[in-house]
Amino acid sequence: MSNLSITHRQVPIRVDDRDYELECQFISPEKTDRDLVIFLHEGLGSVALWRDWPAQLCEQANCRGLVYSRYGYGASTPRPPEEKWPLGYMHIQAEKALPALLEALDMEHERPILFGHSDGGSIALLYAAMYPSRPKAIAVAAPHIFVEDVTITSIEQAREAYLNTDLPQRFSRYHQNPDSAFWGWNDIWLNPEFKYWNIEAYLPKIQCPVLAIQGKNDEYGTLAQIQGIQRIVSHAELCIIDDCRHSPHKDQPEVLNQALVAFIQKLNETLPTNP
């Protein structure tokens, strides 16, 4: 990226009487008069797996960025093998972990724009519902608001690939402990009780602007996910992308960037920027 400063550091946080370190990447942190975009990764994501897409977006939108790996992912503190994610693991990330990180960074008074992908999109929705006045806006790509059969089928296929291919070795490029990341996510989604997971009851509490994005060919969910968001959050805008699977930032980055830049510009025509 031509005009960007990018730094990394480990940030200690405390959640439920446990101490963790989270891997954080800061994009153009000196632009304190510009919007802050916080990137929330998918269920198998990390800082490294985003590659340079967050920096591309920040450059095009002239924003600051905070990219971080959640507990158990990337170079953050790994999950012990015996620890299983609870059914409400995304609720915990929204209610406790993200606020703890912002407090540790002295950013608790910011009004960020959240961009969440997949699990990260669900976390962004929950955060905006639990703390309605905190985010300036949220954009969610391929979020989950309930569990679909197509999602479970794809996650079962991912399990077979992890057990029978070189997927663990490939994951080692993006996660300090690939088993920590993969099995934490895979085990909870394939827990029979998880099929009843549903966050639709939280959505009416969302007050901030919402952009809900999904690829037409998403193998992890149908358009019922983002259409469900708009049904409940009437002011939500939809962006449906052709020739796109589960990861718009990989499959159609130019289309996604155009939509996000327009969304951010529209926000700043009607809302004040961060002081």
TrEMBL record:
This is Alpha/beta hydrolase. Residues 37-258 form the AB hydrolase-1 domain. Gene3D superfamilies: alpha/beta hydrolase (3.40.50.1820). One of its GO terms (molecular function) is hydrolase activity. Keywords: Hydrolase. The keyword Hydrolase applies. InterPro entries: AB_hydrolase_1 (IPR000073), AB_hydrolase_fold (IPR029058), AB_hydrolase_sf (IPR050266). The keyword Hydrolase applies.
